[in-house]
Every structure is written in C-alpha cells, then in structure tokens.
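Supplementary Note 2. Why include the ligand at all?

Several targets in our set were suspected to adopt different conformations when bound, so apo predictions alone were not considered sufficient. For every target with a known small-molecule partner we therefore ran a joint prediction. The input for flavin-adenine dinucleotide is given below.
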Amino acid sequence: MSSTEEYDCVVIGAGVQGSFTAYRLAKNNQRTLLLEQFVLPHTRGSSHGQTRIIRKAYEQDFYTHMMEECYELWAQLEREAGVRLYRQTGLLVMGPENSQNYQLIKTTLERNKVPTVVLTRDNFSQHIPNFNLAEGDGAVVDITAGVLYADRALKTVQGQFQKLGGIIRDKEKVMDIKPGPVVTVSTSAGVYRTKRLVITAGPWANRLLSHTGLQLPLEVVKINVCYWKEKVPGSYDVKRRFPCFLLTEGEEADEHIYGLPSNEYPGLVKICYHMGSETDPDQRDKQTDRSDIDILQRYVARCLPGLIPEPAVVESCMYTLTPDRHFVLDRHPNHSNIVIGAGFSGHGFKFGPIIGKLLCELSLGEVPSYDLSPFRITRFQAKTKSAL
Ligand SMILES: Cc1cc2nc3c(=O)[nH]c(=O)nc-3n(C[C@H](O)[C@H](O)[C@H](O)COP(=O)(O)OP(=O)(O)OC[C@H]3O[C@@H](n4cnc5c(N)ncnc54)[C@H](O)[C@@H]3O)c2cc1C
Ligand SMILES: O=C(O)[C@@H]1CCCC=N1
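The joint prediction is reproduced in token form.
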C-alpha cells in the first residue's frame, strides 16, 4: 500500500464552482478532495467579495431556465446551513428601447413569466429616485433579482461539504496531472490518485489543462471593482430597496455597466464596468489600466446625481472570458473521467449551485439535467488547441 491518498473524486479550485461541485459530489457519497492553491479565504481569483447579483433576466432562455431551479438550490442551502445568502432587491435593466439586447431580455422575461415591472419615463423617478434614465432608454425591473452574499456563500458551501465528510486542502497548488483510468494529481504537498477529476480553476484553467493536452480559447481580464460614495448617506441603500441595475449593450459599447445598492461598505455603492484589460492571473496587480474608471466616472456624473463621481474604493477581481461569453461545462475531449467547468465570463456566481449539480452529473456519467450544448467545448472547433 503506497502513501498516495486515493479518492473517488478530486476537484481542483475552491472558488464558487469547485466548492459547489465538491459539495454535490460529497452529497452523492463520493469520497471527495477539494484542492486550493491559496490559503482560504482569499482574494486572488474570481469568487471573492461580499456581493454578487442574482437574476433571471437574461437574453437567452437557457440561462433563465437554469436560474429557476438555481433559486431553489440557493434557498435549500440557506435552510440546510441556517444562514441568509440572498436578499431580494430587484434588478433594473436599462438599454436603448429598440436595441436587440434590451428587447431580448425583456421578451425572455415575459416568455418565462418572470415577475417584472416595466417603467415609463413618467413614473421612473417615482420608483427609482436619484437615477436619471438615459434619453431613449427603456427600463424593466426583474422583481425576483437581488444580491447574493458571496463570501458568506462560499464559506457556507465549503462548510457543508466538510460536514458531509469532504476534505479541503488549501495552500496546496496542483503542479501536475497525469490522465488515465486513474488520474494522478501532484501538488506542492502530495500526490493523489482519483477515479475522477474536476477542473474548476477559474483564471488558471488553461494552466491546469495544459497538463491534459488541451487549451481553450479563454481570455483573463482584470476588473476594477469600484465603490462610489453617496452624497446623502443611505440614499442608495439596500435597506431602502434600491435595486441592482444593469445596462444592456447599446450602440455604444461604452454603456456596459452594472451596479449594486450600498451594502457591504456603508455609504458606498458598487458600480463596475463589465470589461477589463487582459492579465496574467499571477500578475493581476501589474495590470493598471483605468480606462474603465473614466467611462464609469462619466456615467456616474450623468446618471447617478446622488453619488460623488470619483471612486472611493477600488478593488480587483478577474473574469475568464470565452469568445461567446457562455460557460464551458463539459467532459475533456480525450479523457472522459476529467470534467471541466471554466470560462464563466463574469456572470457565473449566481449559477454556482446548478453548476455544481451539472459538473457532478457529468463526473458521475449521469445524463445532465439541462441541455449542455451551449456549453460544449466542440463549439470552439478551430480555437481549441492541442497543448501536446
Ligand atoms: C468584479 C466581478 C463581479 C462579478 N459579478 C457577478 C455577479 O454580479 N453575478 C454573478 O453571477 N457573477 C458575477 N461575477 C462572476 C463570478 O464571480 C465568477 O463567474 C465566478 O466567481 C467564477 O468562479 P470560479 O470558481 O470559476 O473561479 P475562481 O473563483 O477563480 O476559482 C478558481 C480557484 O481555483 C484555484 N486554483 C487555480 N489553479 C490552481 C492550482 N493549480 N491548484 C489549486 N488551486 C488552483 C484558484 O486559486 C481559485 O481559488 C463577477 C466577477 C467579478 C470578477
Ligand atoms: O452576472 C451578473 O449579473 C453581473 C451583472 C452583469 C455583468 C456581470 N455580472
């Protein structure tokens, strides 16, 4: 008997997707190891920070359908652990009334019977004070949307995983993967053998995948997470039910902005630009481009008159983008016992519980609960490189 530990499943990466996948595997009685390169909790990937938006408002039906069940799964976790992870605020979606993206979101909401309120120019400020609706923009509120308490959610799901007997090893970086019927995973601290491997390494996905002969067309960008100070304290507060908001892309790609009510830092509203500049995930802090902040300053000055148009706090986070901004949820093309969850393209947090369920199903060889064709690796065709 060698000293190498053996598992039914090893999951690499304890961000939101790896943590929910490990939890689902443990619920399915799999002896599961969750490996994380940094000491937990950490702020070096994509899942840190106190808040994320949860919404059903999407351009595509398949996301709205997945969110129907996902809300249930978030609520189940809240009950199971006895913690509050979601607060309903609504999501105000705004965009050029006749633009394709705005209309797609509006019709997806209607078709799927998501409770909404359509605002007019006349009643807008009565419902949403301290906000200027841009000329020509339409506005619809997804009532079901709100804020997820992200850090708390991560801690909770990791805790539940451990209660189920799951093992987390943090400060243990995966250095090598040897695919095969039994996969060998070598870390900075040990060697593990596992029947099944799940790779949920966020911005580091391609680094890990290079050991398996695969490279995906992923782009890692740094996001400046900006907080803006209220002129009158409380005017954009979550307690006053100020909603989350999202601008759909119009003619001007400039208007790709979203915000959350003031919550985690009293008196500060989180407003970010939904794009950033390319970065190496290990050199994130060397990326100092602030052109997104200029765009945000102009927007805040124009549309949010109750905020000081200069960020009071700027933090950092990363997106891992696919060319079409849809996720990668698939088996490895050459090794069916390796499953990949990657490319969450800056909108994956809210899906954590359903991603965990789907990656667990893929890993166990079960038929996935949803049509995963939008998320298959084969859609990239020529862009998928062999790393061998
Ligand atoms: C500013 C910002 C705002 C966002 N807002 C929203 C929102 O409002 N709503 C929403 O739904 N989504 C949002 N997102 C997106 C969402 O947060 C991400 O899609 C999600 O967190 C991705 O999770 P992940 O588990 O794939 O990646 P990560 O959280 O990065 O997890 C990957 C983990 O793998 C670990 N790892 C990597 N390599 C190794 C290795 N070799 N060995 C061991 N461990 C390794 C990393 O350290 C990391 O902990 C936002 C993202 C950002 C950055
Ligand atoms: O996923 C989300 O809801 C947010 C808002 C839009 C841009 C990215 N994340």
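The chain has two domains: 5-47+151-218+324-379, 91-143+219-321. The CA atoms of residues 226 and 314 lie 5 Å apart. Comparable summaries for the other entries are listed in the accompanying table.
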